[in-house]
Design a protein that fits this description.
The complex is a heterodimer. Chain A is of the alpha+beta class. Chain A has five helices and five strands. In chain A, strands 2-1-5-3-4 form a five-stranded mixed sheet, with helices on both faces. The chains are: A alpha+beta, B alpha+beta.
Amino acid sequence: MSPSETPARPRPSSRIRVNGVEYVIALDPDRSLLLVLREELGLTGTKYGCGEGECGACKVLIDGVAIRACKTPIGETVGRSVTTIEGFAQGDRLHPVQQAFVDTDAFQCGFCIPGMIVAAASLLRQSPHPTEEEVRAALDGNICRCGGYLRILEAVHRASESGEGSS
Amino acid sequence: MSGSSPHVPFDLQSPAERAYFERFGDGLVVVLAAQPPGPSGWGPGGPPHGGAWIHVGADGRVRAFTGKVEVGQGTRTALSLLVAEELRVPLSSVDLTMGDTDLSPWDMGTFGSRSMPDAGAHLRTTAAAARGFLLELGANRLGVPSEAVELSDGQVRALGEQEVRAVAYSDLLGGLRRREMVPAPTRPIPPSEWIRAGHPAMNMGGREIVTGARQYASDLHLPGMMYGKILFPPAPGAKLRGVDVSRARALAGAIVLQEGDWVAVAAATLPIAHAALKALRADWEIPSLPSEAGIVEYLRQHPAEGEDFWDVIHHEVGDVPAALAAAPVSLAGMYTAAYIAHVPMETHAVLAEWQEERLTVWMGTQTPFRARDALAGALGVPPSSVRVVVPPTGSGFGGKHAAELAVGAARLAKAAGHPVRIAFSREEEFTQAYLRPMAVIDVRSGAEKDGTLTAWQFTTLNAGSAAARIPYRVANQKIENQPSESPLPQGSYRALGATANNFARESHMDELAVRVGADPVEYRLRHLADERLADVLRAVAVRAGWVSRKESGTRRSGPGTGIAVGLEKGGRVATFAEVRVSEDRRLEVVRVVTGFECGAIVHPTNLRSQVEGGTVMALGGALFEAIHFENGRIVNPRLSQYRVPRFRDVPPIEVLLLDRPDLPSQGGGEAPLIAVAPAIANAIYDATGQRLRSLPLAPEGTVP
């Protein structure tokens, strides 16, 4: 969005940190973090699924903890560190949770997968070797309409077994 | 993104006119003309469709083209495996273009489980023909007869020589521009000799999915792009009396477009587009519409003409009234299935761009060629001026057949002079797409005292004809379907009416088995006319550890077990379910076993995914999914109000795949769903003695 295309009322700007990069953005309390990520910063790996925090497709990490970007006003992210799915891999090296999803073939249409990986990474950071019940509980806010839940459970288990899930 | 597309779509040119080599460089092109629909496709009629073309390039790539699309069910990898198999190249050497109307063969659409039997067969035959030409070219180059060469790893090799002599396809094809039609006969490699297809393989594109790099239609962005929103009626059939657009127009950066009853806005940002839509002051005349209560009677009283997949059947054998009257055992029951929604994770999304007089639309759709024609018709341009490209799509399940959103985006883009993207909100996805039809099914049956089925009368209202026919032997049968005028928009859905029709038939068969004191597995096997389906049922019964119920036919405490079968779209399925019903009526599905057979398995890793995922999706419709409506308005159009299966709902699912390399490959995306609901209903009966005849079975988590 270029400045000339925004409504002509003055708005304060602010700085947010996403995937280690600092961005200057207009601070408008009506805008969600999801909108800013997708439509202003071009980080489209984070998805819109429902807009009411029910599906988990928009999950990102804030200071390492998974949150729903669609329900997070942009103002709440000021001074904090946001990690989107685009920030998980180190160059060509996938994050262990990403690698586990690839190795397990744990996707069909793939649309829910970024949110699933974010939720799983957040869980493994807090609990490196969760039980299956803990994984189910932690990911219950993420919907996969293709029904790939069992493969996803297997992928999270694989990531936790790799012992690198918390990295 | 659009770049050097040809100005005339390939499917509108003769094979000789198409600029294959200008686009893709030197090589060999093999073309298969459109083919009549397959035997389990669209009945005896239907236009020839599909076909395929393959360009084997001097650059070492194999480019294959199909009109089918990938909506997330893994067909891209499965179809690519078939091409890689015939040409003996690694999967990574195959570039499959799907659903690009400028480049792909014309195709009816991706529905009805036709990707494997149609596109799969067409690509396989075309690749087999290319293989023949490569063998001939290679033999000439190596100076040996064509029987003395084979294809291996992208090379033609001389056989039976001490020193290995081989020539790479890229070396054979440099400087060559050869164009061939598939000759008859062309014989693909039999599945029993497959070395790539039929073996475990990872789906392509995993890396771009897990890194968030995959661009779905809703992710696409063009310079100057604007965001569109359409003013939708608050209820089906509502008429616009008038609209005040002045406040919307006054918003900076917004435009408003009105063409008769159709009003839409576009703006430079999404928040302004939302604000502009909200600022429209519309006055609607809302007709009196039915509510959920009384819907069964409404559908009975409002018959409609059959059309499309509401293909009407009147199948009658023998004398059903006489057989019913004479039967010592008779049963009657009414079964219903609620309207349910597809809920694709990616809502409908479209990006439209005009370049001079040519329109390109990127959209998640299952019917790109139908969309091209709809766009051309609505916009008054020839089909050759429209290109529809289908990017990776966040699932469809039968719900992405319509083109209205694309037409809206194209109109806005024309008026704005900018590309326009429109995506449904989740609420619009519920209210403005369409639903799986509500079904009402009446079954009457008659049997001898020993249980032998003698009469079967099956009338299915509004569900469609899928799986309405009976796979059991019965001398007198009358099977009819009757479409209704639906108060809610309805349309295609994964497995369509097969879920409801199968629920009715398989529940009723269970009731009959109980009535005559037969074991439900044995009773089905006694009547099954299809040996392949019987094999699947036997395999599932063994895996599930089925214990025969010869004595009482039922037991009234502890966990309950149930079983059901189905035959649809060429696939054979049997599902076993085990449930627990607690003292406070809470229902828990504790185990599911699904067995599936669909001929020669092309991509076993993915087929297992499809069966597992289809079983999970079917659990939703079986247990709790239902659209609620009052006065024609959907009252639960949100994910917080419409429950879909989540992690906590998924029991252990065991999948048994029966491979039949001797039989043609059929689709696996639909049939695995259709035996889940009756297996659970039968298990609930086994656990409680209570027969539930309406889907969903436990909308609030409890059985009534």
